[in-house]
Give the backbone structure.
Amino acid sequence: MTSSDEMVIDLTNYKDRVGTRVLPGRYRVQVEDAEPTESANKNPMINLWFRVMGGEFDGATITDRLVLTEKSLFRVVGFMQAIGFPTPRRKLKLNVRQFVGRTLDVEVDDGEPYNGRVRSEVRGYLKIAKAEQADEAGTEDEAEAPEGAEAESSDSAEGLSVFKEPAAESEPAAEASTDEVDLDKVEL
């Protein structure tokens, strides 16, 4: 190759917007990046990039989008609870960069084909059991929940389920407080 055939391609800020296809199942992931943006319908949205930790797809990227509409807030709350963030029934002010580096499990399934390509889609967020967190940290002590976070009750055998697609519409929630909570000031 001569110098006239050479090019410099800068991939420094490249982000995989689609994600890697992985087999349906549960994966331990770390939040690699989080970006506030806007959906096609002009609703506030958070783009998430997860890096698979271990197994056959170690290092693969899974992407998800959390749209901040009343109908989809269950997904946002499920994600925040899975990473140990408090979810009081109030207005929250947070910096999505606080999500980066957090570890959780995700349930992944195949989505509908788009342009001939099947994409992996996150179907559920799961909190890692405290005992597993302690084992990963190399200690026998229990990992501590962030201040202000409450323990979740669970219906799953492992006690890990936080968010799954809803089976049926639930009862209306109690009226939420309009006080704003600044999560930048909550110790996590």
